[in-house]
Amino acid sequence: MDALLIVDVQNDFCPGGALEVPQGDQIVPTINDLSATFDVVLQTQDWHPAGHSSFASSHDGKEPFETTEMPYGTQVLWPDHCIQDSSGADFHPDLNTDPSQLIVRKGFRRNIDSYSAFYENDDETATGLTGYLKQRNIDTLYTVGLATDFCVKWSVLDGLKEGFEVHVVEDAVKGIDIEDSVSEAWTEMLDAGAQKVSSKQLLS
Ligand code: VGL
Ligand code: ZN
Question: Per the domain annotation, does 61 fall within a domain?
């Protein structure tokens, strides 16, 4: 059984948002077309409390896009984004969320960031998505959304590790792109066994 996994298509990751992904909004119509063709549609939502430890503003002297060491490893520091209940955390207004059967929220623990739909950045704290997918006999994921080089990439890598077949829809993802991180993300995802597809292939 297949599922479409829509990662973090939220206002703060779209142009004009706090952590904008260039052209992040341009994938929305394609995602809407795709979600109409899947029996199972799932979403993630980045959902941080104010003062979250992944925000540069929570660390004296740090600027966004610098890094800091956390107990679980190196963490990129971000502008404040996707704060719970803010409009920036809302899904893009044109995204059709009606077909979504599950919304996985992540990043809600103050002291740990979470890029992946499966595990937080400590690689240990589970969101529960694996159990949900297994119980619904879903073995294949088609991944779309934002950002290619962070939440999409980590969701794809963890999905593969958890034993799912994972496809990435190349024209339905967009990245932040810090120092070539988008092309590195593609290399990592493909090396790990992800399959690149186009929306055209899926919609024809
Ligand atoms: C994301 C950075 C921080 C993402 C979320 O959705 O890719 N990136 N929080
Ligand atoms: Zn975040």
Answer: no
